[in-house]
């Protein structure tokens, strides 16, 4: 689009505007900068300042009248942060009074003056929208296709939900966690670390920090020769932090986190190595691509795991719940107290069929191993030497790590858990609480 500028009756040569995005016609960012080029504010000792830069209303109103620009008083709002004065001040645009409000949306961000976190309303709104989009995503997919596959679910999450969660750089955590739990088929009390180690996703808190650090890096690279309000805001934030007051820089320092992925992975891996419920994830190695056709086996903390690609939803959820200790076997369910009964120590979480051994993953699956192994032995060999009666979990981990048999293993797990789920659980009499 070509433009011509008229000044004092003279016309410039036609030119194209290549600065910013054209939102209509001549009100582009480039022309707005030209329009405001002569805006100057006189200083006063009582001015509200941003790193020394004064901010005023009356002078701006007078300047706008001279420039034939109209300021709408009904659309203008005032906010007071911190303790309210005994007598509220009156703000005016010309003769019209500006309303003082406790919350207001400005440039897509909600600000709140009645909460210790000025972005509390923004976080709540974006979390609500993300939750609605997540529910709509699962609902629409279920009505048309059934269960949402994990790979496609993660893509929809990044495309439709994540954009709300990172709006403003910080948001509530529960939406991301509930989406991943629902996608994997886990209950609402599952471990948090496994949501990221099994899907390869980054926690929202870390994503928020990375965005904040990226913004900080950009601000620090601004040329000192330019008169930038955004740099004044940064320097003012540093001053507030140094004086012990709340600020954006202080929020970043408070997180005490690093933008290095290895720190996040080390923290997640420590959870895997420490928690009892992650015993099937310990010492897990996977193939790492090193490029040029070379690869090696090593520890990969975060990755979308191969078993999440199982096509049949019931089989995929069954093997996921088994690996992540979210199944219905007594070794997991009796870990916690229930109505009228106490939590059971491990040696009392007995099998509902034989009642002679702990009903854990290895006990439930491996007694049926002969029929299952005969089914896969023709295609994949090398299982016999892996079995050791005194190390059943090592053999189970070996089976779970195999990509070649994951489809049949998932079906085998689903069938086995269905058998256990169709019979009542055995509860030793010593677990019942006195009435």
UniProtKB/TrEMBL annotation:
Q: How is this protein named in the record?
A: Uncharacterized protein
């Amino acid at each position: 689009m070509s433009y011509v500028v008229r000044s004092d009756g003279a016309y410039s040569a036609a030119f194209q505007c290549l600065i910013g995005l054209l939102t209509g016609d001549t009100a582009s960012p480039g022309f707005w900068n030209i329009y405001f080029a002569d805006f100057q504010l006189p200083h006063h000792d009582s001015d509200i300042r941003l790193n020394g830069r004064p901010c005023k209303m009356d002078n701006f109103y007078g300047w706008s009248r001279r420039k034939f620009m109209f300021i709408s008083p009904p659309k203008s709002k005032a906010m007071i942060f911190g303790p309210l004065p005994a007598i509220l001040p009156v703000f005016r645009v010309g003769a019209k009074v500006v309303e003082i409000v406790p919350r207001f949306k400005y440039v897509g961000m909600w600000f709140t003056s009645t909460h210790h976190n000025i972005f509390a309303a923004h976080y709540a709104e974006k979390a609500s929208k993300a939750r609605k989009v997540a529910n709509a995503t699962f609902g629409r997919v279920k009505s048309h296709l059934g269960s949402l596959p994990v790979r496609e679910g993660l893509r929809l999450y990044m495309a439709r939900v994540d954009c709300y969660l990172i709006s403003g750089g910080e948001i509530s955590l529960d939406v991301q966690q509930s989406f991943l739990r629902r996608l994997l088929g886990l209950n609402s009390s599952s471990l948090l670390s496994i949501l990221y180690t099994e899907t390869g996703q980054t926690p929202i808190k870390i994503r928020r920090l990375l965005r904040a650090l990226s913004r900080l890096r950009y601000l620090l690279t601004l040329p000192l020769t330019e008169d930038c309000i955004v740099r004044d805001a940064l320097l003012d934030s540093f001053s507030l932090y140094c004086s012990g007051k709340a600020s954006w820089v202080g929020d970043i320092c408070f997180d005490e986190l690093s933008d290095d992925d290895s720190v996040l992975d080390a923290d997640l891996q420590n959870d895997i190595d420490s928690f009892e419920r992650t015993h099937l994830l310990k010492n897990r190695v996977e193939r790492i691509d090193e490029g040029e056709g070379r690869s090696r086996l090593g520890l990969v903390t975060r990755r979308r795991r191969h078993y999440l690609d199982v096509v049949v939803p019931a089989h995929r959820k069954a093997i996921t719940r088994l690996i992540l200790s979210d199944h219905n076997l007594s070794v997991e369910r009796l870990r916690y107290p229930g109505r009228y009964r106490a939590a059971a120590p491990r040696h009392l979480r007995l099998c509902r069929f034989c009642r002679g051994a702990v009903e854990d993953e290895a006990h439930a699956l491996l007694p049926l191993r002969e029929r299952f192994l005969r089914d896969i032995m023709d295609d994949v060999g090398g299982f016999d030497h892996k079995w050791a009666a005194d190390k059943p979990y090592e053999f189970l981990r070996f089976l779970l790590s195999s990509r070649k048999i994951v489809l049949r293993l998932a079906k085998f797990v689903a069938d086995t858990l269905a058998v256990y789920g169709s019979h009542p659980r055995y509860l030793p009499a010593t677990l019942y609480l006195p009435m």
